[in-house]
Amino acid sequence: MSASVFIAALSALVMIISVLFKPYLSFGKIKVGLYVIVCIIGAAAELLFGGLSVADTVEGLTADTQVNPLKILALFLAMTMISVSLGDSGFFHLVAEKVFKFGKKGKLRLFIILYAVVSLLTVFTSNDIVILTFTPIICIFCKKAGFSPLPFLVGEFVAANTWSMALIVGNPTNVYLAQSAGISFTAYFKVMALPALAAGVSALIVLLIIFRKSLLAPSAPAPETQAEKSAPVRINLPSMIAALTALTACIISLALADTIGVEMWVLTVIFAAGTLLFNSVYGIFNGEGLIRTWSAVKKTPWELVPFIISMFIIVLALQKSGATDAISSALINGENTDGFTFGFLSAGLSNLLNNIPTSVITEKIIAGNSLSATYGAIIGTNIGAFITPVGALAGIMWNKILSGYGVKLPFYKFAFYGICVAAVSLSLSLLTLFLVF
After folding, report:
1. Candidate from 37-41, 148-152, 332-336, 368-372 with smallest mean pLDDT
2. Tell me: the pLDDT tens digits for 364-414?
3. Contact indicator for 169, 76 with CB cutoff of 8 Å
4. Crossing angle, helix 355-366 and helix 172-180, to 10 degrees?
5. What phi and psi, each to the nearest 5 degrees, are found at residue 333?
6. Domain ranges of the chain
7. Separation CA 89–CA 87 (nearest Å)
């Protein structure tokens, strides 16, 4: 057991250091996440020294179970492709323009509207895509209007990583943990709707208290540099309609997956393929070629594939060594296990390991023995994503975008905002979960 635990702990430590100080390595124009390389090395070390055989690994990766990491990756990446196609059509920029138009009468009004819209979009699309799309727009608009962008950026990030727990497809951690417990799309929503509402509303209230002075203070427009001028956004209506149709049909199909007897990953792949096919055919006929198709493929977070598979291998080694069973026997008491324990545990681990590895580890610890623990872990891995920049991969990408626009958000300040909001929203959402059960 000692070798596999040592390798896992060392991998986690080095991964945290890489995320904080050197998240990416550049090879010419190609950037590779150092944290991914660390996990790959850790997985290889488990195979060489941790007592995990290649046969065990192949069996774990190819097992015909709900928790098969390849199926979960297919589901999430396919949903992301649909969301990216929707974003490339100009949909998110169009929505953002409407938001800023209605919010011109005051910063407080704009903050609330922006929080509500980001929350709604996150529920039905992808929290990462919403964050990556809205962040540059917020930075540019706030500079033009003379606003401090910090309240709006923090509000956007918190909203996206809170309301992502509402639907099973909102976050890969939701998919992984829910699928491991055999929770269907509709069963998930029936339980998580109220905890998500409690977390989202309480987070908004805490944010309004934290940023009340900034949101009520007068502002003066700052001079706009050439680099900060936003380029006009081209709206492609046919692509937008196609992506919205695919997204709507996909969500409805996922809700009916158990009834029609088709696995969720199959349905999402079918709709993603249909979206890419439409963009390809439409692009050829209107002279764009395969630009939109290639853009959707290129913007999909493929680094999740080696990252999740490597973490899965590391956890398989921990499971074979008996480490996860030892933790499980100490924390799991059948269905009497409360969600509070795994909610706070997973939120904390997310900021030591990142929320995706945390979901893989907690799944092995819970091992399908407690639905309340599973839902608690889902809440923790979503809310834990905004406590520190280490909490989620989106935090790494988000900070990179901010630095490109000259917005400084030090680690300690990020953590201060995150801890203040999470202390309230995590507690209330877990309490709501307890009442639901």
Report:
1. 332-336
2. 888 778 899 999 999 999 999 999 887 887 777 787 778 777 888 888 898
3. yes
4. 10
5. -130, 55
6. 65-436
7. 5
